[in-house]
């Protein structure tokens, strides 16, 4: 990943005069971050970010409860805020999908599987990161026939949701297209036994 190019060196007074929210002083902060500083208080952007997320991790339950309470007390304002943000969010998601086609595809698959498991009241869920780990654990090969699945695979429930299976990652396997079509909605062990006959 390429390093972010820093803006020209200037003083805080020059940044204030130019109406900038951030400026680059030309030297790292006391913690060694080569990053911009906020014009308002001259604090390093990276240090401020790290401090905020450390505080958030310690106070997450309180913050989430506060946000939820505000939404319940102000439903119209919350809805208006969401509607104002919608076009920008849609554009940002379109751009992300264009820049990350594989991740977008995995996210769509995860959402679809989560929806199907909710419809069947099946417990558990997994993420695109879980699928990446499983892909590496299977050494990029189909869990059944061991053919390479680098060019594409399907996410399969070993014990199908229709037969009482869960949506936990432990019940997920990656199969090539032909194996997944052949397996259908049968449990993995039953399908393997029938296949070996």
Task: Give an account of the 3D structure.
This protein has 197 residues and is mostly helical. Among the domains are: 12-46, no CATH class; 111-196, Herpes Virus-1. The protein has 7 helices and 4 strands. It has helices at 12-18, 45-73, 75-99, 101-119, 128-137, 177-183, 188-196, and strands at 22-23, 37-38, 154-157, 172-175. A two-stranded antiparallel sheet has the order 1-2. Helix 3 crosses helix 4 (101-119). The longest helix is centred in the N-terminal third of the chain and has 29 residues, at 45-73.
Largest sheet: 2 strands, antiparallel
Secondary-structure element pattern, one letter each: HEEHHHHEEHH
Q: Gyration radius, to the nearest Å?
A: 25 Å
Helical segment tally? 7
- Indicate the overall shape: elongated
- Specify the structural class: mainly alpha
Q: Give the beta-strand count.
A: 4
What is the CATH-assigned architecture of the domain at 111-196? 2-Layer Sandwich
Question: Overall pLDDT, averaged?
Answer: 89
Head-to-tail CA distance between termini: 51 Å
- Strand residue content: 5-15%
How do the strands line up in the largest sheet?
1-2
- Secondary structure: helix percent: 40-55%
Assembly category: single chain
The CATH class name of the domain at 111-196 reads Alpha Beta
